[in-house]
Specification:
The chain is mostly helical. It is built from 11 helices and no strands. The chain folds into 2 domains: 150 residues, Orthogonal Bundle (Globin-like), CATH 1.10.490; 120 residues. The protein is 79% helix and 0% strand.
Length: 276
């Protein structure tokens, strides 16, 4: 290792906390990193110190890219949990690099003309290491975002029972929906024709309506329309002397609920496609 490179590495390692404090003061008041302003200073200083102390290992490692992951992944996870936007996390790394060189310059690390010329190589090496870290932070942020989205919609994806046409999942969906509709027809006939009562049985209709909207999106509105027609037709056939307004309202609610959930499911599908 050449003397000028060793000189820089020794400075960074021995003065890691001092450089980190200087960086913390900068990043916590910079207008391009406003999210850092609310973070505890001790945490920010600890982040900077961890990187500067790792600098020797990264600079001298046979595979510096892999060595950098010990810092960059932890850095990304910590900032992601703190809800720091990615662009601010990357700009904070830029400030970290800038403060490193400002500190070295202020300390007079490279004094002679020869040292200043040779320092260019150290600068290039430093830029390369920070580029590695920046790239890994972006990758980790992307993984964390995708993982968060998948966890949030995981339960819905399970209910959606997605699968190609003709697969067992689709056969189960059509089979279950046929059973639900058959039960709806039986309940409607029993209550309207036998009991001569509107009753509260129609609340059960929301189960197939919601499932149809989850499974088939906007196309699931067909189930809502079918059930709406079912109760209105049955009312006209078996409850002629009773006011139909309550069933009209129910039918309208079926269609409205089916439409809203179907529209929401289409939006969820688009979000899923975007992240894929």
């Amino acid at each position: 290792m050449q003397a000028y490179a060793a000189k820089l590495i020794d400075l960074i390692e021995s003065k890691a906390e001092n450089i980190a404090k200087q960086w913390a003061d900068d990043v916590m008041k910079h207008n391009r990193t406003p999210s850092y302003h609310r973070l505890p200073k001790e945490m920010v200083v600890e982040q900077g110190t961890a990187f500067y102390k790792l600098f020797r290992r990264m600079a001298l490692a046979a595979n510096p890219y892999e060595e950098a992951k010990s810092f960059s992944w932890k850095y990304a996870e910590e900032l992601y949990r703190k809800k720091i936007p990615l662009q601010e996390a990357i700009y904070a790394l830029m400030l970290m690099r800038r403060n490193l060189w400002l500190y070295a310059e202020f300390q007079g690390t490279f004094v002679t003309v020869l040292e200043k010329t040779q320092a260019v190589e150290s600068l290039n090496r430093t830029i390369l290491l920070f580029d590695y870290v920046s790239h890994q932070v972006v990758e980790k942020y992307q993984d964390l975002i995708i993982g968060s989205v998948e966890r949030r919609i995981g339960a819905i994806k399970t209910l959606m029972m997605k699968g190609p046409i003709g697969t067992k999942k689709n056969i189960y969906k059509f089979g279950m929906m046929a059973i639900f509709l058959l039960i709806a027809c039986i309940l409607t006939y029993h209550n309207h024709a036998t009991l001569k009562s509107e009753g509260l049985f129609t609340h059960l209709f929301y189960i197939p309506i919601i499932l149809a909207s989850i499974w088939w999106g906007k196309r699931g509105i067909i189930i809502s329309i079918f059930l709406s027609i079912l109760i209105l037709t049955s009312h006209l056939l078996f409850l002629r002397g009773m006011n139909i307004s309550a069933d009209v309202i129910r039918a309208g609610m079926f269609i409205m609920i089916g439409s809203v959930i179907g529209w929401l499911m289409e939006g969820i599908k688009k979000v899923e496609e975007m992240y894929q």
